[in-house]
């Protein structure tokens, strides 16, 4: 696993980042002049980047290639280079980001066609792609951190794209802040690395991390995990992700489903040499993954907002990936594989949801949908394929990659293996339930269409233009085939071997076939349950009030927001108000009080200046006595 | 009668003068009290001159008398002018300037 | 057989100029026609002061005054040393500037700040008649020259008796001058009475102190006192005498707790006289304090040091704190003068018996710059007028900068100097005295001094705030167009304030060379 | 080339310029602005040339000149720069033209003349250059105090409604600090005089040994002055008032440069001259610094006035700078110096853009704005860049400095660093809260037009509809009609903001040239105070307990 300097095409891999960045710069600085062709430029930069990434990946041949650009910071013993590392892992991510990114750019041309700020939308998307590529291509943790916060910024800008809507603005801020909480973890991890190892490059850290005390390694691992949780919407920082659906749907597809939110998985996978040394941190990753998996799945069952259901689904699926990376060497490749397939089908699902919203006057309440299958045939088919891939329908993408994770969890053996495997299987059932519920409410049943606002005509659903449907079709092809390709045709674990080491045959606790059967059975149960609860009956247009405690909790996403509010926000506001009072009355008050005190004593002392000669004489006599007394005291003493 | 007696007497005179300045209201009387203080100093000087056997102190007493006379001239002029304006020689009435 | 004392006329020349001018002034008053009296008196006074100033400088430049060059003359009654000559020159120079202020005839519609006939009762019909007449009284010039002569004698006195006589010579004219205001005569007369009664009271203390010292040492000559102190320091009689002498001098220097007369008298006196007192009297009083403490009691410094330490603190605090709530500018400057007396005492503490300490030169320099600045500030005060004479209430200064930016700028310069902001002479002076004090280990005192100067800065700033940051009142006062004399004063003082802040080197050197007392 | 008197010229040119501008007759505002801008650009050019002439690897102080000034006090007019001072001069050079450009169309309060404003700005520039270029402690003190005067007049004459209070508070606070420092300055001289020739020259003072107890007193004297200037909590309360009431240009120079004198003073004077005392007091200073980071950030969130908010953010940032200085590592101190520059650019831009917003809405209250981004996207964009730089987003200059401070602090002071790192969450909160409230959401407050005081409240007047009406009603209705539409940035405003935006980005991506300038001086300072100028040593091999845990 030696890194070699870049040559040939690979030395131009910085173009991957530079192109979208230049696109963003041109579009932002060019102003309205670029309105007419801005979207085309934006799409082109990412498409070209995809081509370059593809070419780079093909010329990689199992190597790890370093590209030194310039010295970013060099002072004291700290040296941070602006350098890139192009290895199989980053190549996979670069392909995912530019590939799915390019498709979503194309889709956005149609989706945002009527938005007066389309140019800026493409600028932000380009900015995102650039930052995301920096995140995965950087050869050190600081570069990763720069990209990490860069995607956070792009995410902020895009969630708040329709910033006139207070909900969008608030969601964007919430996303940024919760991400910052995670960023603190990442930053502290970098500080610890520098303090302990004197370097922040992957090569340097991984090369000497073995010398560190166990506790330190665990601390680094946990801090990195905190960062990963923030970015990937994992417990306990999951609450921002569903709110982020306030952004335009292509954003949800690209950033909040396919790429950015998986950065946490990338971080942990990239830091594999660290996690390999700390069982404790890995266990915490496992727990976080399992808990999030369940939270996402449960909440997904209760929401009526199509995008929020998909968002919780994302939370849940990333939980699977965390679970996988938490398993250690056996799970890394599986996690990345699931990440890739998830990127395809979840992006496809979001694009489909966007198409549905496009047809329905931007409504998102599934209780107002229904019977759209006939009106939106292409959307229905592509969405349906994505749905099947997600629930793990046999031989579609999700089946291959999710099963691999469940298998790996069960292979862990012992109580923990059973618990984790059980959770994963249960999650698969729940996934099937909520996704089937979504399908039924959206595409089947009676049309429950209603005007999006009082006074507006009821929507007349129509299929989206081809500029939108073509990307959906491409992604649905990916949803169907990617899993098979990555597991069976071009095994990803072998491709990633230079990074994670050679895949080794696991000792199966339960035979894979049995697992596959059980998982499929549970999935079918989930589908049936959804049909029983939702499909058989008329869907009420207004969500029922009288529901069980479980449903109520699920609708509130297990009270995550309430907990955040009562634990942080309200005390924070209270503290802020208290401190403002303290600062004005206490700190500043002390100063002003001193001034007032001086003024007061001035007036009081001034009273002694009575204007009477005899008083003055008295004062002088008193002074004389004091002076004489003082002098005598000094001489006597 | 020792040296101390004269000195104590002078000190008492000085104190009486000083207290007079503090308690009397009429500007002329106040001023006379100051003169009393000056004269107590004269007594002190002369006493010390006697004690040390030099004449310096006595000569100084003459100086003091001359100075006191000059002071009287200036002082009475000032008191006079304010008296003519206010028709009062009470020092307590001159109380416009304060605080 | 009486041996005539040896008189060094060259050394006495500065004094002779002043006293000569004063005597001529009296004669002019008696014999010159009324119409020509004013210009003649002014000329005589100016010749006297400027002559005194120049002869002092000439004396200093032609004679070796430091070290063994310091001498006594007139039967040991007068000292001819660097400090004495420096302070005499300072007093004469500041006196000349003050006299120029006396001579200003353009500002007041009645052509003078001084009453036409002091004997006419205030408020009488005759008084109202005279208020608008152009008649001016010219006694003020000989009075001022006598006072200046007394002050110069005061700082050169090598003998407590001479010091006492000089004290009276400088005080008596001042008492009279305080009562000579043309407007607000009641206040002026009240100021005169107060100053006189309290001044006489203080003189009595000084005199009693003199008597006690005489009793304790058998002599009133400072060198003799010094010998006695060195031999038998701690004698109760001597210490009591020192205490009473200090009381008398501190009164003149308006040091708290002997300051009570200052605000009233400064406010009531005619403004040019206030300027005169604030500048020249302070120099004279501190000259005498320095001489008494350094020469007479220099070998017994640990007797008076704690006392001066305490008095300095009290004075600074009283001046700064009481100044905060003043609404009358003259009164405010009076409290400022009390605070500055405290700062000066800080410099006085920069003394050690080896003689090689910067306290003396620092204090002398401070006296010079404070005198110049304070005369300038009072000169500005004479220019801001409303129908009733000078508008000294703070509120009338609102928005002055918009009406008269130059005057506001000059006043700001003086105020910043009084506050001790760098690049003004006030800072250099403060720096000098504080350095002297710290050099002698008195850093806690310096910290107190710095904090009180911050407090004092508040009230200086308040004036700046009013002038610059407030909108002018519609019926506010007018800024008079000054005549030549005031213009000269303002130009000289402002230039000096700035120059001594930016390049004070040569004057500091001068003060440093002059820093020696015969003893 | 290096004999060329860059520093002297950088003081003299603006000083003369100030005199010329002040001497212009009233009403020649345009000429005054042109002269001022020209002069400030000359200073910028000089600063750049001085940087070129500066040899980063050479002597500690370069471009030196020294003329005896007050011999009696042992004072000389000695100028010279190390890398730290040099970058501050560059910052001054950049900010002053920007400020002049930003104040180009300002209307004075009352009947005052704007020529005076520009004269004060130029004088301030001269004094600011002096304070950083002085290598004589007395000279430094003189500039330090004299600098107050122009700023006092800028706040007091051209500021907001409570300008009198703010100006006096600013002046007195700084003066108190300065006077306490004066005592220490004199004390320092006396100490040097006791050890030989009394001097105020930095290099002489740096070479003498001072008794530790004396060091403590002197350190405190300097420290209080700098802590007030910089401001550290709890000496900070003057800054929100001054920052809020100062005219925008003044506020930029106040927090951008003037306050840096405090942190500069820590580095230049406290650490090298009083190394023992610095080490003794470091924990307390660090506690203040870190407390300030959190305290001021929370306070910033609680502000309803934008300029006060920005002022509080500066207090928080100064906490970071002080943290970087008092951990005594090269990385952190380099970061702190870089932070000083970057904060000047970032907060300067933030103040400018807030000022531009206020110029449009006429109110400083956050609640009077809303939805500005929809109407003025460029304004919003610049605001965002400034905000992001303020919260130290990577890619902006502030990130580099904040990262260096924290990463350099962690090895020696992990606990303080961890607490301070939490501050970056709060930074995101206060910036984004303000941004959301003013820029996002529906048009609101003054921007909405309908909350304005139209007489009957109900019907906002139609835009420019009824101009034919009586003049009285027309003037009443005109205000909301114009307030409704927020104009985007003008060409002038863009020209003013763009250099700062460009620098924020460029220095965020490629900060190394500045670091190369700063580091030698910082390393020298750190070695003066006995820190390790080489940087933190990795401590990996100390603990062997891990070996079996790995298997």
TrEMBL record, chain A:
It is found in: Endomembrane system; Membrane. GO terms for biological process: ATP synthesis coupled electron transport; electron transport coupled proton transport. It holds the Pfam family Proton_antipo_N. One of its GO terms (molecular function) is NADH dehydrogenase (ubiquinone) activity. InterPro entries: NADHpl_OxRdtase_5_subgr, ND/Mrp_TM, NU5C-like, Proton_antipo_N. Keywords: Membrane, Transmembrane, Transmembrane helix. It comes from the Bacteria. Residues 73-122 form the NADH-Ubiquinone oxidoreductase (complex I) chain 5 N-terminal domain. Gene3D superfamilies: 1.20.5.2700. The chain crosses the membrane at residues 12-30, 37-60, 89-109, 121-138, 184-202, 208-230, 251-269, 281-302, 309-330, 378-400, 420-445, 466-490, 510-534, 613-634. Residues 140-424 form the NADH:quinone oxidoreductase/Mrp antiporter transmembrane domain. GO terms for cellular component: endomembrane system; membrane. It is a multi-pass membrane protein. This is NADH dehydrogenase subunit L. It comes from Trujillonella endophytica.
Automatic annotation (TrEMBL), chain B:
The chain crosses the membrane at residues 6-23, 28-49, 61-83. InterPro entries: NADH_UbQ_OxRdtase_chain4L/K, NUOK/Mnh_C1-like. GO terms for cellular component: NADH dehydrogenase complex; plasma membrane. One of its GO terms (molecular function) is NADH dehydrogenase (quinone) (non-electrogenic) activity. NDH-1 is composed of 14 different subunits. Subunits NuoA, H, J, K, L, M, N constitute the membrane sector of the complex. PANTHER family: NADH DEHYDROGENASE SUBUNIT 4L-RELATED, NADH-UBIQUINONE OXIDOREDUCTASE SUBUNIT ND4L. Belongs to the complex I subunit 4L family. This is NADH-quinone oxidoreductase subunit K. It comes from Trujillonella endophytica. The lineage of its organism: Bacteria, Bacillati, Actinomycetota, Actinomycetes, Geodermatophilales. The gene is nuoK.
From TrEMBL, chain C:
It is a multi-pass membrane protein. GO terms for molecular function: NADH dehydrogenase (quinone) (non-electrogenic) activity; NADH dehydrogenase (ubiquinone) activity; quinone binding. It is found in: Cell membrane; Endomembrane system; Membrane. It is an enzyme of class 7 (translocase). Its main location: membrane. NDH-1 shuttles electrons from NADH, via FMN and iron-sulfur (Fe-S) centers, to quinones in the respiratory chain. The immediate electron acceptor for the enzyme in this species is believed to be a menaquinone. Couples the redox reaction to proton translocation (for every two electrons transferred, four hydrogen ions are translocated across the cytoplasmic membrane), and thus conserves the redox energy in a proton gradient. This is NADH-quinone oxidoreductase subunit N. It comes from Trujillonella endophytica.
UniProtKB/TrEMBL annotation, chain D:
Residues 134-424 form the NADH:quinone oxidoreductase/Mrp antiporter transmembrane domain. Residues 454-471 have a biased composition (Low complexity). Its main location: membrane. The chain crosses the membrane at residues 6-24, 36-54, 74-102, 114-132, 138-158, 170-191, 217-239, 251-269, 281-302, 309-330, 336-359, 371-395, 415-435, 494-510. It is a multi-pass membrane protein. The keyword Coiled coil does not apply. It is found in: Endomembrane system; Membrane. GO terms for biological process: ATP synthesis coupled electron transport; electron transport coupled proton transport. It comes from the Bacteria. Keywords: Membrane, Transmembrane, Transmembrane helix. It holds the Pfam family Proton_antipo_M. The keyword Membrane applies. One of its GO terms (cellular component) is membrane. Residues 450-471, 529-551 are annotated as: Disordered. GO terms for molecular function: NADH dehydrogenase (ubiquinone) activity; NADH dehydrogenase activity; ubiquinone binding. Belongs to the complex I subunit 4 family. PANTHER family: NADH-UBIQUINONE OXIDOREDUCTASE CHAIN 4 (PTHR43507). This is NADH dehydrogenase subunit M. It comes from Trujillonella endophytica.
